[in-house]
Structures are given as structure tokens and as C-alpha cells.
Design goal:
Helix content is 30%, strand content 27%. By secondary structure, the protein is of the alpha/beta class. Helix 1 packs across helix 7. InterPro entries: Methyltranfer_dom, Methyltransf_Superfamily, RlmA_N, rRNA_m1G-MeTrfase_A_prd, SAM-dependent_MTases_sf.
Length: 277
């Protein structure tokens, strides 16, 4: 068992016929029927059901399953293979994995390249992790927070963060010296066509290279494309973005009248390396 106890950070061990895990201090956690662990202590929860709800998770699953962001998944997999090419049995953590789309694709890409990688995904949303565990049974998933990742110190060769909260101190703690951290950020005009519908004065996203303590910047990998959507895909895209929460009612109502959408899309993958100790 590679996960660590979210309460005392000691190693977890399989128990009860592999139906649960426990640490040396007696903290015990059961596997769900889908195979994931719930490692989010009550004092780390900020609401009864933190993270994305079932509707948002379902929208993301439908949208991503349609292959609309395949170019981003392919780029992430190329970066992962490059970072781990000299590592025999790499450990990869997808921090804030959502419903596991990118986690599962990294697992497949590394397996196809012959690397015996161990993939782990954590997200604060129970609804998201449940779907992730069903879709990728060869990946270890847990409900957990990026602010308290259930991994031992210096255990991950690669940590990926795809639009999840960045916690530099915690990411630095779990990444091995010489390991890598890859962060996805939106390009300046990512989803600009959607913003033109939602807002009277659409704005470009800010782009910059951010320094994180314990890491040094390696390279920016820009990925650009154009997306054309129809019907439910338009609403699903909206439901999986932050705009879903902050768009004025008028913009939401206007989008409901839209049957097709064409927009620019773009991720920048920022690659960092963990500094030597």
C-alpha cells in the first residue's frame, strides 16, 4: 500500500483480507466497492460534500469521453513519458484528478511504453473519485485534499496538476528530489468563444511563468486547437468550467439558446523539476 495515513502520515498496510488499510497507530480506512479509499479527515472538509457535485462530474465525463480534449491528454502523456524515460518503476500522482480522465490516459501511455508505473489519483470530490475508480481499476484512487496528500515524503517521480489547486509546500514534500511537477494552465484565449457568449466584455486569461518554492522551472509546452460543439456538448463544457459558478444569470440564459459553439482552446503545460535536497 503506497498511500499514507491522512491523520498521522505513517504508512498504511492492507488489513482485513485487503478490504481495508490501517497504520501502526490504528487508524483504519475501508475500501469502497469501487476500490477507492476515503482519506479525507473531517477536519479537512469545508462542507458536507466538498468538490464538484455529481452533475458537474457527469458533465465532465460526457465531455471528455467525447474526445474533445484529446490533444491535451496526448500532450500530457508525451511529457510524462519524457520525464520518466529513465525511471524503471515510476510513481505518478495526479493531484486533483477529477473523474480520472487524464490519470487513466497517463497510465495507459506509460504501460504501452513498457514502464511499470504506479499511478495514483486524489480528488476532494467523492463523486469524481467514484467515477475515476470505476473507469480505471489499475489506478489507485483516494478521496483526499491537495492540501494534505496521502503520500509519504519524497515518494512521487512525477506529480501532475490539471486545473486543481496548487499547494507548493505539499507538492514539494511528496515529490522526489530530481522529480517533476507538471501544471496545466489555460492559454490566453482558451474558451474565448464561450466567453463571448457569456460576457458583454470577454477577457483573455493572464499568462505568466510562476516560481514555486522547492522547484525550478524547466519548460512551457503550449498546446492549441479549435473546438466545434453542438447540443449537449456545449452545456457540458460550460458545466465543467469555473464560469459555471461565476457567470451572471443573463449569460447563463443566453448560452441555453446556443445550439452550436466554435471556440479556441489552449493549455500550457508548465514543467518544473524538484530541487536537490
Amino acid at each position: 500500500m503506497y498511500f499514507s495515513c491522512p491523520i498521522c502520515n505513517n504508512h498504511l498496510y492492507y488489513a482485513n483480507g485487503n478490504l481495508s488499510v490501517t497504520c501502526k497507530n490504528g487508524h483504519s480506512f475501508d475500501f469502497s466497492k469501487e476500490g477507492y479509499l476515503y482519506l479525507l479527515p473531517p477536519n479537512k472538509k469545508h462542507s458536507k460534500s466538498p468538490g464538484d457535485d455529481k452533475a458537474m462530474v457527469a458533465a465532465r465525463r460526457r465531455f471528455l469521453s467525447g474526445g474533445h480534449y484529446q490533444l491535451f491528454a496526448d500532450a500530457l502523456c508525451r511529457i510524462a513519458r519524457r520525464c520518466l524515460s529513465d525511471t524503471a518503476e515510476p510513481v505518478v500522482m495526479d493531484a486533483g484528478c477529477g473523474e480520472g480522465y487524464y490519470t487513466a490516459r497517463m497510465a495507459s501511455a506509460l504501460r504501452e511504453s513498457g514502464q511499470r508505473a504506479q499511478l495514483f489519483g486524489c480528488d476532494i470530490s467523492k463523486a469524481a473519485v467514484r467515477l475515476a475508480a470505476k473507469a480505471a481499476p489499475d489506478v489507485s484512487f483516494a478521496v483526499a485534499s491537495n492540501f494534505s496528500l496521502p503520500l509519504a515524503d519524497a515518494s512521487a517521480d512525477l506529480l501532475a496538476d490539471i486545473f486543481a489547486p496548487v499547494v507548493p509546500e505539499e507538492f514539494c514534500r511528496v515529490t522526489k528530489p530530481g522529480g517533476h511537477f507538471v501544471l496545466a494552465v489555460p492559454s490566453a484565449r482558451h474558451l474565448f468563444g464561450l466567453k463571448e457568449i457569456l460576457y458583454d466584455a470577454p477577457y483573455e486569461n493572464e499568462t505568466k511563468d510562476t516560481a514555486y518554492s522547492g522547484f525550478h522551472f524547466v519548460q512551457r509546452f503550449p498546446v492549441r486547437g479549435t473546438l466545434s460543439l453542438q447540443g449537449q456538448d456545449v452545456q457540458d463544457l460550460f458545466a465543467m468550467t469555473p464560469y459555471y459558478w461565476k457567470t451572471p444569470k443573463a449569460g447563463c440564459e443566453k448560452l441555453k439558446t446556443i445550439s452550436c459553439l466554435t471556440t479556441e482552446i489552449g493549455f500550457d503545460f508548465l514543467l518544473y523539476a524538484r530541487d536537490p535536497v
